[in-house]
Write a structure and sequence with these properties.
The chain has a single domain, classed as Farnesyl Diphosphate Synthase (Orthogonal Bundle). 72% of the residues lie in helices and 1% in strands. It has 15 helices and two strands. Strands 1-2 form a two-stranded antiparallel ribbon. Strand 1 and strand 2 form a beta hairpin. The longest helix has 28 residues. 45% of the residues are buried. One of its GO terms (molecular function) is (2E,6E)-farnesyl diphosphate synthase activity.
């Protein structure tokens, strides 16, 4: 996709800003400050005021593309961000990645201690499903669909399984297929689920869902490839997290397996696959989804 014209770029930026403000306000409402013994403070520290919010943006963009319910999409956006934030809180702990910087500030366990960080992550995971299951306003069948998509993406077949592979792969050689499998689970599954949860807020055909699934799959992998590139090309101050940690931990990455130039080419190829899937969908307006694909590949943090 070519570079956006200034009016198109401004329209996209305005749409992103509107979604971010809506998601932030909803998270501020739903993440309780008054949880016992300071737990609410740790939860809010871990999820508010930070991050790219790519997953909520994908939910909202997909819901827009299928003309789905904005209100339901907002709940789905917050739920997927809560799952993402909980995973970061746990991944950063000493028993896993042992990181001290996230979203430009000390990680939750550094700020609040390991036990409180563990509980904050647990509580955010539970809250995600609470947000998806209000007593009224979301049909029970849709609640079940959204919960199923999110649970599968976060569990053993998705994010948690990918993290287990990641921890088991330190210092071990992985070929590209094994690396792809790990990242499709660890990172890609939740990004793909974000797209599918947005699609579930409308009534798309099976063919549209299939195309959006392919888009989400390619985009999820592209995101991780670019993450691996940025880990070796950007400073911690730019990333908002510790740069070079994968190399220091002797973890296999797309850069270590493919090389830097080939990794970036692969990211662009995946972006092209995502855009081709959107073209096949037949949806009338996939502008925001397409722009998000560009944003994933062209980002510097």
């Amino acid at each position: 996709m070519g570079r956006m014209t200034p009016p198109a770029a401004q329209a996209f930026d305005a749409w992103v800003q509107a979604q971010l403000e809506a998601v932030e306000a909803a998270l501020d409402r739903w993440v309780p400050a008054g949880a016992p013994a300071g737990l609410g403070d740790a939860m809010r520290y871990g999820v508010l005021d930070g991050g790219k919010r790519l997953r909520p943006l994908l939910v909202m963009a997909a819901a827009h593309a299928v003309e789905g319910s904005h209100e339901v999409a907002l709940r789905a956006s917050c739920a997927v961000e809560l799952i993402h934030a909980y995973s970061l809180v746990h991944d950063d702990m000493p028993c896993m990645d042992n990181d001290v910087l996230r979203r430009g500030k000390p990680t939750v366990h550094v700020r609040y201690g390991e036990a409180q960080a563990m509980l904050a992550g647990d509580a955010m995971q539970a809250l995600a499903f609470e947000v998806l299951t209000p007593e009224e306003g979301v049909a029970p069948a849709l609640q079940a669909r959204l919960c199923g998509l999110l649970a599968r993406a976060a569990g053993h077949a998705g994010m948690a399984g990918g993290q287990a592979i990641d921890l088991a792969s330190v210092g071990k050689p992985l070929d590209e297929a094994a690396l792809r499998d790990m990242h499709q689970r660890k990172t890609g599954a939740l990004l793909q689920a974000s797209v599918l949860m947005g699609a579930a807020c409308g009534t798309p055909s099976a063919a549209v869902v299939s195309a959006l699934s392919t888009y989400g799959h390619a985009l999820g992998l592209a995101f991780q490839v670019v993450d691996d590139v940025l880990d070796v090309t950007q400073a911690s101050e730019t990333l908002g997290k510790t740069a070079g940690k994968d190399v220091d931990a002797n973890k296999p990455t797309y850069v270590s397996v493919l090389g830097l130039a080939a990794a970036m080419r692969h990211a662009h190829d995946l972006r092209d696959q995502a855009l081709a899937a959107l073209a096949r969908s037949g949806l009338a307006d996939t502008t925001w989804l397409a722009r998000l694909a560009d944003k994933v590949v062209e980002r510097d943090s």
